[in-house]
Amino acid sequence: xxxxxxxxxxxxxxxxxxxxxxxxxxxxxxxxxxxxxxxxxxxxxxxxxxxxxxxxxxxxxxxxxxxxxxxxxxxxxxxxxxxxxxxxxxxxxxxxxxxxxxxxxxxxxxxxxxxxxxxxxxxxxxxxxxxxxxxxxxxxxxxxxxxxxxxxxxxxxxxxxxxxxxxxxxxxxxxxxxxxxxxxxxxxxxxxxxxxxxxxxxxxxxxxxxxxxxxxxxxxxxxxxxxxxxxxxxxxxxxxxxxxxxxxxxxxxxxxxxxxxxxxxxxxxxxxxxxxxxxxx
Length: 281
Fold this sequence. Notes:
Elements lengths: L1 H23 L5 H35 L23 H11 L1 H21 L5 E4 L2 E3 L15 E3 L2 E4 L8 H66 L5 H36 L8
Antiparallel strand pairs: 1-4, 2-3
């Protein structure tokens, strides 16, 4: 935006010089000179405002990155236009496969199913088997078994006779399964909405960007050049030239805004699908 306003400011300075030349040669009116000077001052005011916003933004970025408040940022460059050719259905499928929130909820469903299986296992009797080995040592009698080490295998069985106490645990596990499935479905629905919303915004921004690049910006620039030549040749008045300048300024700024929306749409689509889109085309 600063670069656009600087371009317009320089252009208006040339307009101002043209009006002064025409006024000095008695081919123009003094009001044209005054209007040109006023427009120059207005663009200068815009420059001051945008430069102040930029300095505030630099300070905020330094704060976020825990850097020195005196650090500066380099010149901002327009990022490459993200061209994502996947269809909406492909984005939905990718999101259902890759999005971390969905994976988390699927894991919760598996955990709840496992908890229910463990609760059902309480109906099965518990069998404990042990082994004990005793070193006897030297014998003191004439018996053949005297002095031999002994061993035994104890076996115990715990039968769940009071099974009614197990029912609440199974019911609770079932409720947890239902809750986890509901959360999973809700996450899938939320993902569907976010992917569709980001996809529609991205596709719309792509189309509007193309419209500006191929039609609106070149047409506004052509109209400005034409009116500038017409004014210098005395074939049009200064008001028409100012109108063309304002339209050109608004068009250039609108293009920047829609390009930002395009970048935001691609980033939102990346977030919604749970993907890293770097390198994708």
